[in-house]
Specification:
It is a single chain. The protein is built from 20 helices and 20 strands. 40% of the residues lie in helices and 16% in strands. Mean pLDDT is 80; it is low at 41-89 and 99-132. 35% of the residues are buried. Helix 18 (494-504) crosses helix 19. The chain has a six-stranded antiparallel beta sheet with strand order 8-9-15-11-12-10, with helices on one face. A five-stranded antiparallel beta sheet has the order 1-7-3-4-2, covered by helices on one side. It has a five-stranded parallel beta sheet with strand order 17-18-16-19-20, with helices on both faces. The protein has 572 residues and is an alpha+beta fold. It comes from Takifugu bimaculatus. Residues 99-110 have a biased composition (Basic and acidic residues).
């Protein structure tokens, strides 16, 4: 029987061999399908093993055992999923919030990845959500292709234009008004330079949402944007800087000038842009171009009324006069502070740039890099920051090649690893909201209404508010040489506060470089001022808890003979 079975098997194999010899393409196709199926099964098993309870337990056990081989095996294909995460698996958060593998799995089951939740939340949003407290509809206006009603930036989308999209784009550029036309065109501006039209003439549906109107034929549906106070005032591509007294030596302070017939803001800005100067300065019919300097620092603005003098070429604009100049910042980049490099000699002392998450650490790093010309490092690794120009992000935090090191860590052991520190403190009410937005919307995104009104926000405040206080107290207690910077003070008086930080870092101060920083201060991680909450997210219980933390930090500052918490933080 066995011999007969062997003969039968041999005959079958011989037939298969002859079949594929006659048609080799089919043979290779079968092999390819087999390999593809095997690869898919392998990948599926890898991801399930990494994300499932068994995979997490294996990784947790590997970490606990300290076995590097088992750790690398446990990570497996998880590297693909993690992408650019914090270096060495570090996560910053309140010390009491360290989760077990099972807890992390449950959190993932309930909340999922924040980016996924954010995208899901955006799907159901419409323009009406941002009309309350964020943008106010003011009417239908006539538009002329030769003389636009709104003369700032513009863009078009003949498939997906929505009211919110237009508002958000104009808000991000600092404009006061957003207007929609033909259902697909968006115009931004600081002034409406056209008369009203009948509301019935703004009758075209938005291409991206049929429930809202987006103007009409040569008619604009215009909204006034409720921007945050710090949002820049713009005119077209230029940023309005204010009204300033004539400098003592105009030719030295502003080396290039020319008389322009029928002067307008556009003409002066265009001329200075062509000359590659960052400032366009109007004084009647004369346009001056230059850079901020100690001779013309823009630190002492005058009342704008003294600059009221209509431009000859544009009746709605002010062009200043011989004694008081109107100043705009052009799109030309001031390159005096843009060069950055690593330290040529490795630093022997480590300087921390410490802060609670959401307190403005990334922005402060940006300012320090521009002011000093040296890269800053980080205790973590964030690929999005590295791609935006923070090249020290990839260096080991102990490399000694960076001027200071970003950290959100707290605790005696972590703090005593540094020889000195700059501690950035921000109003906890602002810091908590900023970190919540980052956590659920990314560096410049926003948490969705579902997150704010759901259980995520109360749980976040409950856990993070005490950490805001304990983080600051730890650095004040264990830090060897601490220089405190209040975020709000840095925004109000950037020049002097940044100068103090540069001196603390032991570097020579360049005033020209600091003035350059003032013109480039925003960086790449600033949220739009448009999407602000229309209600106070803090309950009385939350405020009572946060106010207690503020008093704790105030006492800790005074204990080190420092000025206490800014008055605006204090409970009322």
């Amino acid at each position: 029987m066995q011999a007969a079975g062997g003969v039968s098997m041999a005959k079958t194999l011989l037939k298969i061999q002859r079949y594929f010899r006659r048609k080799p393409v089919r043979f290779f196709s079968l092999i390819l399908l087999y390999l593809t199926a095997g690869s898919l099964v392998f990948l599926h098993a890898g991801f399930i093993g990494e994300s499932g309870p068994g995979g997490r337990r294996r990784r947790d056990n590997a970490v606990a055992s300290g076995n590097p081989n088992s750790l690398s095996d446990a990570r497996g294909l998880g590297v693909i999923r993690r992408g650019f995460k914090d270096r060495s698996g570090r996560r910053y958060g309140p010390p009491w919030m360290k989760k077990t593998g099972e807890e992390r799995q449950e959190a993932a089951r309930r909340g999922g990845d924040y980016a996924t939740n954010w995208n899901r939340a955006l799907k159901g949003r419409n323009a009406k959500e941002v009309d309350d407290g964020r943008a106010k509809y003011i009417g239908c206006y006539i538009d002329d292709t030769k003389r636009r009603a709104l003369r700032g930036a513009s863009f078009y989308d003949y498939k997906k234009m929505t009211v919110f999209r237009c508002q958000d784009n104009c808000a991000e550029r600092g404009y006061m008004y957003a207007g929609l036309e033909f259902g697909a065109e968006c115009y931004c501006g600081h002034k409406i330079q056209a008369p009203n039209a009948s509301e019935s003439e703004c009758n075209m549906d938005c291409k991206g949402e049929k429930s809202n109107l987006c103007g009409g034929a040569n008619r604009l549906s215009i909204y006034r944007l409720e921007l945050s106070q710090e949002s820049a005032r713009r005119y077209g591509s230029a940023i309005f800087k204010g009204c300033f007294r004539r400098p003592a030596n105009v030719s030295l302070a502003l080396p290039f000038s020319a008389v322009i017939q029928n002067m307008s803001v556009d003409k002066c800005v265009d001329m200075c842009t062509e000359k590659e100067k960052s400032l366009a300065v109007l004084s009647g019919d004369r346009c001056h171009c230059g850079y901020p300097s100690p001779l013309f620092s823009l630190h002492e603005p005058e009342n704008e009324d003294v600059c009221v003098h209509r431009c000859q070429g544009e009746e709605f604009e002010n062009c200043g006069n011989d004694e008081y100049f109107v100043v705009y910042q052009t799109q030309v980049q001031d390159k005096r502070c843009m060069d950055r490099h690593f330290l040529s000699v490795r630093a022997k002392h480590l300087v921390a740039l410490a802060s609670f998450p959401g307190a403005g650490n990334t922005w402060t790093r940006h300012l320090i890099e521009l002011a000093t010309g040296f890269y800053t490092g980080s205790y973590y690794f964030d690929g999005s920051l590295y791609n935006k120009g923070f090249k020290g992000e990839r260096d080991n935090w102990r490399s000694g090649r960076t001027i200071c090191i970003k950290t959100h860590e707290s605790g005696r052991k972590e703090i005593e690893a540094y020889d000195s520190s700059i501690l950035v403190i921000r109003n906890p009410y602002k810091a908590l909201m900023a970190e919540f937005n980052r956590k659920y919307g990314g560096h410049i995104g926003f948490a969705s209404q579902a997150h704010w009104r759901g259980k995520e926000w109360p749980e976040f405040v409950k856990n993070y508010a005490p950490w805001w206080a304990s983080h600051t107290v730890d650095w004040l207690t264990y830090g060897k040489n601490v220089h405190v910077v209040h975020f709000e003070d840095l925004k109000k008086d950037l020049f002097s506060k940044l100068k103090e930080m540069v001196q603390f870092l032991g570097l020579k101060v360049s005033e020209d470089r600091l003035l350059c920083v003032e013109g480039q201060k925003e960086g790449n991680f600033k949220r739009s001022g448009l999407r602000k909450l229309e209600y106070d997210p803090y309950t009385p219980e939350m405020r009572a808890n946060i106010d207690k933390q503020i008093i704790i930090v105030d006492a800790a500052l005074r204990k080190r003979t420092m000025s206490g918490i800014p008055q605006e933080y204090m409970p009322r």
